[in-house]
Design brief:
The protein is α+β, with helices and mostly antiparallel strands. Helix content is 16%, strand content 46%. Strands 3-2-11-10-9-8-7-6-4 form a 9-stranded antiparallel sheet, with no helix packed on it. It has a two-stranded antiparallel ribbon with strand order 1-5. The protein is elongated.
């Protein structure tokens, strides 16, 4: 009777060791953005991740992380203060911007990651295209800030934001 629990533990222990040998975690990130119609560039930091990247089986990967809204930086103190205020990002009541993947695919060194991006209390689906470069995943995507309740300009098309991600994977 003791053999069955032993085999169960041994089987799952070996699977966990094999899986851990193939998977990696995102250790750091550089996130840059550009508010296109105004030509304003900036960064956001305070990155935390619970991601698990499986190089061998990308479909098993999970991209999950968040950044701190209060770290939004455009190299202009007054503009930063305004963007962090209740009128825009409302960093006090919504301290994090979060992302969690729903699907990960691979085509050569290109990875497609679909997932849910939450800014303030609004969640929308986004798709990020990453290229694997050594121990990095470098990706881009675009969004419209007005879709997340951040209305900088009147017309939706004028609220385009391009985002660049560099994720260090160890």
């Amino acid at each position: 009777m003791r053999l069955i629990p032993f085999l169960f533990v041994l089987t799952f222990g070996i699977q966990a060791m094999l899986l851990n040998g193939q998977t990696k975690q995102i250790q750091n990130a550089e996130i840059r953005f550009e508010f296109v119609s105004k030509g304003v560039e900036g960064t956001i930091s305070g990155f935390e991740s619970e991601s698990v990247i499986d190089w061998e089986h990308p479909e098993n990967s999970v991209f999950k992380g968040r950044v701190q809204s209060k770290t939004l930086d455009t190299n202009n103190g007054l503009r930063n203060w305004s963007l962090r205020s209740g009128k825009y990002f409302d960093a006090k009541d919504h301290p994090y911007i979060t992302f969690e993947s729903t699907e990960v695919t691979q085509d050569g060194n290109q990875w497609g990651v679909k997932g849910n991006l939450t800014i303030k209390s609004t969640t929308k689906s986004v798709s990020v295209i990453f290229k694997k470069e050594d121990k990095m995943l470098v990706g881009t995507f675009s969004l419209y800030s007005i879709d997340y309740g951040i209305k900088i300009k009147k017309q939706r098309v004028d609220n385009l934001v391009k985002v660049w991600l560099e994720l260090g994977v160890e």
